[in-house]
Write a structure and sequence with these properties.
Strand content: 15-25%
Number of domains: 2
CATH architecture of the largest domain: Alpha-Beta Complex
Radius of gyration: 23 Å
Number of helices: 13
Structural class: alpha/beta
Helix content: 25-40%
Oligomer: single chain
Length: 476
């Protein structure tokens, strides 16, 4: 009781505002391939990305073609967004350190293949974009390199073609082992060639028609759910209007809001995403490693790219099942609603309000001082790994979590049942919306692994969320 009371006092005590907060120590490396101007959503995705430019190490911004824009490149549009970022970067630095200088970002803009698909890939067809990918892979940096593909992948195909043709097999394997590809759906015919030709390459994609894309969870409506944070009115009030020059260039939705953003959302360090484990879930969705049958890829749906049968396992659509939390006016603050959702897009839907509120808060950072904006809480777990016996009661705690603005915190624990080796729900014994909860391990006949997530949300405006993950090994 004394420990719990001390924890509650610590949570209630105001924390002195500090500015700026430190950027995360560990960041993912990333190159973007974008068919910007084929659809306004690439511009939208760039606006959001630059708000997190201190949390991801951006090493290239490459203008590409796609099925929707086969013969033109628009690097000038990327530069235009960076120029708007330049006007707000000094204010962003009042909130967190590490936002790169605009000139550094401008120096990373390149052009990729000047034509469509594999027809423009081959000997002597290297471009500034394909060379930049190779240079980044050869850099003396032990971290993997993520190439996020927002359009066609043929600039990446050219880089891989050149590596295979000009490096020894051992050196090519070493370089390719450092590469991680995160795309949405194929937008030219090079994606299938890459996956077929380089069977060991780490590749995240929803192949086929766009109707089968996990990424569509960022803008598709949840039937019977609350879709306010993707509405045009919400975008107007929280992003576009009255939020400075970067918000002002965020365009209206033409087809779908930010379809490319899920390609990098899971690279943002928030305590939930583990990029090397797409099956663990995160803001960008959840993916499992298998060979998808063509019949499951919406083969008659819109994309314009011929669908080839996959020749090996890829990281692709995973199905999540969850009940959205409902706020209550009295008693327990939140409880699961009556409606259960089971869908391949649910791996994004379950976090969507969280990452939209985070986007809105960072856009506020572009114009407001530290003490007039909200900042995310810091989650502190008692432990991140635990081993228990069958039938044993165990306790998980995030009591030492805090908020940099001194805001009150809400907690929500749950067993993420799709992850690990025990996929039946493990219920908690007491209310799930307090900082310390208990669970009882199921009876197992061999070791099993279960993942438990805590969502820690402040009561600032907008409310911001960070997470903790506890991996529990259950033994007989």
């Amino acid at each position: 009781m004394i420990v719990a009371l001390a924890g509650m006092i610590a949570l209630a005590s105001p924390i002195a505002a500090q500015a700026p907060l430190p950027a995360p120590a560990e960041r993912q490396r990333m190159i973007v391939l974008s068919d910007i101007e084929a659809d306004p959503d690439d511009t939208q995705s760039f606006v959001r990305l630059l708000l997190y430019a201190n949390e991801i190490d951006i090493e290239g911004l490459v203008a590409t073609t796609s099925i929707h824009m086969k013969t033109s490149l628009h690097p000038e549009s990327i530069r235009r967004i960076i120029q708007a970022y330049a006007r707000v970067q000094p204010n962003l630095l009042k909130h967190e350190t590490g936002y790169p200088a605009p000139d550094r970002l401008l120096a990373l803009v390149r052009e990729g293949q000047p034509g469509y698909g594999m027809a423009i890939v081959g000997a002597g067809k290297d471009t500034a974009g394909s060379r930049l990918i190779i240079e980044a892979l050869e850099r003396r940096d032990p971290r993997p390199l993520w190439v996020t593909v927002w359009g066609g992948a043929n600039t990446l195909a050219q880089a891989l073609y050149t590596i295979r043709a000009t490096r020894t097999p051992e050196e090519a394997r070493r370089l390719i082992a450092k590469l991680r590809v995160a795309t949405i759906s194929d937008q030219d015919d090079s994606g299938a060639w890459i996956r077929r030709t380089f069977p060991d390459l780490f590749y995240v994609v929803s192949p086929g028609g766009y109707g089968a894309g996990t990424w569509t969870g960022i803008h598709t409506l949840i039937d019977g759910g609350d879709n306010i944070t993707i509405s045009n009115a919400w975008l107007r009030d929280n992003i576009q209007q009255g939020h400075g020059p970067l918000g002002a260039i965020y365009p209206d939705v033409a087809y779908g809001m930010e379809g490319d953003t899920p390609a990098y959302l899971s690279l943002i360090p928030n305590g939930l995403s583990v990029p090397e484990h797409p099956d663990w879930g995160g803001w960008g969705g959840r993916y499992e490693l298998y060979t998808p049958p063509v019949a499951t890829t919406d083969p008659s749906g819109f994309s314009g790219v011929p669908i080839e049968p996959e020749t090996r396992p890829i990281w692709t659509n995973a199905i999540d099942m969850y009940k959205p939390q409902m706020a209550k006016p009295y008693g327990r603050a939140h409880e699961p609603g009556d409606r259960q959702i089971k869908d391949f897009r649910a791996g994004i839907w379950r976090w969507r309000d969280d990452f939209q509120n985070d986007f809105a808060a960072r856009m506020t950072w572009t114009t407001q001082p530290f003490d007039h904006a909200n900042h995310p809480p810091v989650v502190k777990l008692a432990t991140s790994r635990l081993t228990v016996k069958s039938g044993q009661r165990f306790v998980l705690s995030a009591i030492d979590s805090r908020d940099p603005d001194g805001d009150s915190l809400s907690f929500q624990w749950f067993h993420y049942q799709e992850i690990g080796h025990w996929q039946s729900p493990i219920a908690n014994g007491i209310s799930a919306n307090i900082h310390t909860v208990d669970f009882t391990a199921p009876v197992v006949t061999e070791p099993r692994e279960a993942h438990f997530i805590v969502r820690v949300t402040d009561k600032g405006e907008p409310p911001l969320t960070r997470y903790g993950r506890v991996i529990v090994t259950i033994t007989p």
